[in-house]
Amino acid sequence: MSETITQSQTEQLNARQKQLDVLDQLLKPEVQESLNTLVEQLPQLTELVNILTKSYDFAQSVATDDVLKNDTVSAIS
């Protein structure tokens, strides 16, 4: 029983240390600058993802369109 409690306490201490490590990293000026840059670029990233999604949907619809496939094969033959 005491092993379980000790192991649990050790895991809690490790988790706490990891949280403190993350906080220490977040306090660094270069990390804050990078995060600010990322936040500033989010609207452009969102727009890019939307465009890529539309392009993927179009390519997927073209690739699975049986009528287009048949017409293309007929035009080539």
UniProtKB/TrEMBL annotation:
Superkingdom per UniProt: Bacteria
PANTHER family: DUF1641 DOMAIN-CONTAINING PROTEIN (PTHR39180:SF2), PTHR39180
Descriptive protein name: DUF1641 domain-containing protein
